[in-house]
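Hi C.,

You asked whether I'd gotten around to modeling the 281-residue construct. I have! Everything is below, sequence then structure, no commentary in between.
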Amino acid sequence: MKRPRFRTISIRRQLIIGVAMVHLLLMSIFVLDLTARERHFLTDGAKARALFQANVLATASMPHVIVDDFAGLSEVVNAFSRDRTIRYAMVTDANGQILGHTDRAKVSQHVQDPKSLQVLRGPTEPQFLHESPMTVQATAPIIARGQTIGWAWLGIDRSADQQYLGYVTRSGLFYTAAAVMIGTVFAIVLATTITKPLRLLLLGAKRLSQDRLDVPVPVTSKNEVGVVTRAFNAAMERLTRQRSELRSAHDDLEKRVQERTAELAQANRSEEHTSELQSPC
């Protein structure tokens, strides 16, 4: 069974990758949340602006609709067309016949789309016709003496909102990349600081495996790694001392054996000499 590949990566690389991934995750969540909030805010603003301007158009058109002043109504509609955020402005009578439009070719026609016809037959109140990332369309009734004499229709262009959202997204991506890079640099410095004592301890263990006990491991920190390093050096010192004592004991024993051997040899020679003297000729 193969071990997970991540476990075979060094602690230094695991720390660097971990910090970079955390920064990437947190910044991605932040950018997504910020973009969603901005999109919701801009949508609410566009809807409120569309309803407000539809009501303004209805109020400004009311006297011209009452007296069938189509020239004055055209001026009112054209005044709204000067606003670059407005896609179209239109005024109809209560039956849906177009009395004024920013596109003059549509004057005297009737609205025919199902949504507009539903508005004409529905409750007399400001409402939305359509909402999308690129436009918001709203309508408001033109009321005179309690009677609905027409409708004001207006479409808001949201391309500027989409450009702003694109700017926010690009800025978020840039800051995410910057945060990941800064986090990675910080992780490299932190990993170097943390893993340096571990590398020194690893080299000490390698020297121990090679039976080299004369070089202690440098203690570079006072944390847990430093405690382990001091304990490792103490163990190496005890091992060196025990080996020295064992070597001394071995040399002393060897010396005693040699002295005892010499004594026995001398005793044997003395005994042989005594035997020769006592033997008859």
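If it helps when you're writing up: Residues 16 and 189 are 9 Å apart (CA to CA).

Thanks,
B.
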